[in-house]
Amino acid sequence: MTKEAEYAIEVENLTKRYGDLLAVNDISFNVRKGEVFALLGPNGAGKTTTVEIIDTIRTPTSGKASVLGMDVTKKKHDIVPRIGVLPQGFSSFDRITVRETIQYYSRLFCCRNTDVDGLIELVNLKDKTQDQYKNLSGGLKQRLGIAIALVNDPEVVFLDEPTTGLDPQARRHIWEIVEQLRDREKTVIITTHYIEESERLCDRVAVMDMGRIIAQGTPNELINRYSAESNITFRLTPPSTRLSSRT
Question: What pTM, to 2 d.p., does this model score?
């Protein structure tokens, strides 16, 4: 497999400054096609800025980034039709329904062959198709946002903190969608500050802090490298859904 065929995203010595603020500081990483990759770190670490450069929203101060072999500063019009983005703080029109929202964005992005019913099923909103956006919970709004990010059947999907502020059940629903995207061989880039989320979902993780990448590897590699000498992990199969009545 050639380098171009192997990597969906290549980032080399990427830097972004806002005046005196160094938001992204000389970072490099690659994302293989078909993998789920996380940028993990606290608020203000530079995760969103990095993603917004890669998905062509912002321009870098220096360094290089490419998507599907195309330079993000030179090939924006070729890249955008092949990617999908769920931004932080996603919102839509209050008084249109779930189905109408997906149809609207499909037309806005000139996607004539969007499988609206298939997207509704993927994000598990079949019983909410006639509900207006304003009446959806936070978790349902995020699931709708993911559906919108997929209207063009993108090869690469960016999910910027998709579960922040959600309750545990809503987070699990988002996780299930990401796992389905992996099964469909989509390349998925997630930003998150939840360690357990990156461990559960991601093939590889880049840990960011203060604009720099301070560690990279698979979740198991990072656990073995930085955790205490002994670890005991319990995994229930199937997961338990009942709480013990004993205290």
Answer: 0.89
